[in-house]
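Q: I have two molecules that I believe assemble together. Could you output structure tokens for the complex as a whole instead of separate predictions?
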Amino acid sequence: MTTTNPLLQVRSLTKHFRLPGGWLSGGARYVYAVDEVDLEIATGEVLGLVGESGCGKTTLGRMVLRLIEPTAGKVVFDGQDLTTLKREEMRQMRQQMQVVFQNPLSSLSPRFKVEQIVAEPLVTHHVLPKKEIRGRVLELLEQVGLGRQHLDRFPHEMSGGQCQRVAVARALSVNPKLLVLDEPTSALDVSVQAQIINLLEDLKKAHSLTYLFISHDLNIVQQISDRIGVMYLGKLVELGPSETLFNQPLHPYTKALFGAIPLPVVDRSHPLTILEGNVPSPVNPPSGCRFHTRCPLAQEICTQTQPELREVIPGRFVACHFVEPY
Amino acid sequence: MSALLEVRDLYLEFKTSRGRLKALNGITFDIQPGEVFGLVGETGCGKTVTGLSILRLLPRSASITSGQVLLEGIDLLGLSRSQIESLRGSKIAMIFQDPSTSLNPVFSIGSQIERVVRQHMQVSHQDAREKVRSVLAAVGLPDVDRILGSYPHQLSGGMQQRVMIAMALSCSPRLLIADEPTTSLDVTIQAQILKLIRDLQKKFDVSVILITHNLGVIAQTCDRLAVLYGGRVAESGSTRDIFNQPQHPYTRGLMSAIPHPGTRGRKMATIPGTVPSNPGAMTGCTFAPRCELVMARCKLEAPPLYLLGEKHSSACFLAEPKP
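A: Yes, here they are, computed for all two components at once.
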């Protein structure tokens, strides 16, 4: 899986969370949140990461920033292995990589005014002399479609969409190269969601940014991403270019996932794909292929051997024993 | 066929520290027997409050200032407290967005549903248990015996929502109000629950009001719908008519703001601005400040619902019949 000029490389990245309780409950138990995931993001690329709750997409995003320490594996950013960096070095490095979270009302301090919120990274990273900060904040607010009148507002005095614009301005303040966007539109109304997507696309072009875009909303992910990675129970099960992956999903899980999206079209001749059962618990993931308990194609081998992610057609990677090449 | 439920010109306001907030400003729609009816709109459009008004489950700060809610011809707003209480659960049932907060964490699933059954039906403990078993089986829960003794936290979100649906249907109501029943669920589980709602609607011969912000969910599930904006009905009609020929500028805006494979790589259509915070205080059409096709008249008077076809109507002056 080599991309020309990768900005970010994730190698065998793994996170096992230890559950509370120990020898009394019969040995330590772990949540296998992310298991040996490999990814690359090229400079200027948007990689979308989709999956249902508990698939590990958010944990993966946070490990990239080392907001969660990986159990094993490497994160190489711009040629440097982040997992070996000391605390202070990592803090410096975060100037290059910023994050926007799902709920702007909880990711913005309720006691800060917009000006302080957007200026905070500039102050902590000593990017600008004090007297230039206000000018920079105004410039950033304009870039995200806000203005001088918003400087003195508190987050609760603004709408969800405006708050998310502030969160984006804050992330951009230190001129990062990579933005991790974790469900940035999920808390917003449809009409506002489209505004934020357009904004993110404009900003990406204007500042040649690279995005890791995490969302459970497949429609939004395919709109903004160049490539999409699909996760299931801590594993990357499919990876490929947005358009072909969406039109021709290869992994049975990807097919089921895409078939379950209710499209805003009246066409009862194509009912939603119903995938029976629930996502198993990541504390006790199924043996072999983790999807075999719900998979319509499952055979004996799937219960025993974990399929490797392999390139089935150029640029398209699938982890399935029975994927039919086209 | 006469309507099962008619909501006529419903006005509702909240008392807040900043004065009166007029949340519903003349909502009108009707539900036919045996149909799934969608109420769709964005935050603050009044869809949830409308659902709560029907069952009179409103918070104390809310008061209905005028209008009627007729269930088989009887105005629910005029009923006494005990009369409306006996209707809740038996004739009209409701399920909510987050099943984990709707179920009581300290009672087993079996005893919670049984309590509902015995509240409304004069049956023995044994018959009530049997009824509980049959509704749990009807909503597709495996291993009913285990579920009966389980507590809510032992079930997944999808299973909890199935339990809520079982509880709602346990007394064979005529109307089920489902307020964002799949919003907290994953997309594969959402597909299961939507199919279940459609199947049970037929099996139990119940009408369903499906309240959601998701137009995709509406398109896949509902027979007819009303699009709400600013506490009014912007457009109503059959799902086919509204999705194939949306008339109101707001409906059109909403539909084009949903990304799909065709919009990839292109700029997405948006509706500028945000939803009004106190729509009742505005004069004229509540959508006028965000409307691309706004005319001078829209800012002065609110458009009524104009009938376009047999059952399709739009509250926009552009839909006014030409003289």
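A: One point stands out. The mean pLDDT of chain B is 93.
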